[in-house]
Amino acid sequence: MKSNLNSIEQLRSLDLKATSIRVDLLSILSESEKAISYSKIQDSLHDFDRITLYRTINTFLVKGIIHKALIEDNETFYALCGHNCTSQGHSHRHIHFKCKKCEQVSCVQTNHSIDIEVPGHSIDRFEIEAVGTCDSCLK
Ligand SMILES: [Zn+2]
Ligand SMILES: [Zn+2]
Ligand SMILES: [Zn+2]
């Protein structure tokens, strides 16, 4: 699979050993345009143990490969980061959109760049969650 090869390369460029769970997890997230829930990740992996998966997700979060797109009561959604995220930190300028019809979560760019300033504070990142109807459900 092409995405597997890409994933292996990406992991190596980040000095991460291309273990099979890392390659699988990265490929699953790369192949999806939307954010993916933890339970869907579990369903997509054939063979894994929970602790390894938990650690792998954590490594990806710390390395700036993925971010949490949405946290709900029993579910966390993860999405791939862009080039602005590194192990130094995440830098996002998009919002997280949850569709109330198909219940998919996606990272969406807004028409205007979002900048929030708080006097006397320095903001590295902020989270904006929007709920509504996505473009495919509106058609
Ligand atoms: Zn990020
Ligand atoms: Zn939808
Ligand atoms: Zn996002």
Shape: globular
CATH fold-level topology: Arc Repressor Mutant, subunit A
Given the structure, what is the number of helices? 5
Overall structural domain count: 1
Tally the beta strands: 6
From the 3D coordinates, which CATH architecture would you assign? Orthogonal Bundle
Strand content: 15-25%
Mean pLDDT: 92
Structural class by SSE content: alpha+beta
Stretches where pLDDT is under 50 for at least 5 consecutive residues are none
Q: What is the share of helical residues?
A: 25-40%
CATH homologous superfamily name? Winged helix-like DNA-binding domain superfamily/Winged helix DNA-binding domain
Order of helices and strands: HHEHHEEEEEH
Query: How many strands, which pairing sense, and closed or not: the largest β-sheet?
Result: 3 strands, antiparallel
Ions, cofactors and other bound molecules:
zinc ion
The whole-angstrom Rg is 16 Å
**Which class in CATH terms?**
Mainly Alpha
**Widest sheet: strand order?**
1-3-2
Distance between the termini: 32 Å
Tell me what you see in this structure.
- The chain is of the alpha+beta class.
- It has one domain (2-138): Winged helix-like DNA-binding domain superfamily/Winged helix DNA-binding domain (Arc Repressor Mutant, subunit A, Orthogonal Bundle).
- Helix content is 35%, strand content 19%.
- The chain contains five helices and six strands.
- The protein has a three-stranded antiparallel beta sheet. Strands 5-4-6 form a three-stranded mixed beta sheet, with no helix packed on it.
- Helix 1 (2-13) crosses helix 2 (20-31).
- The relative contact order is 0.13.
- The mean pLDDT is 92.
- One zinc ion is lined by residues 99, 101-102, 104, 134, 136-137.
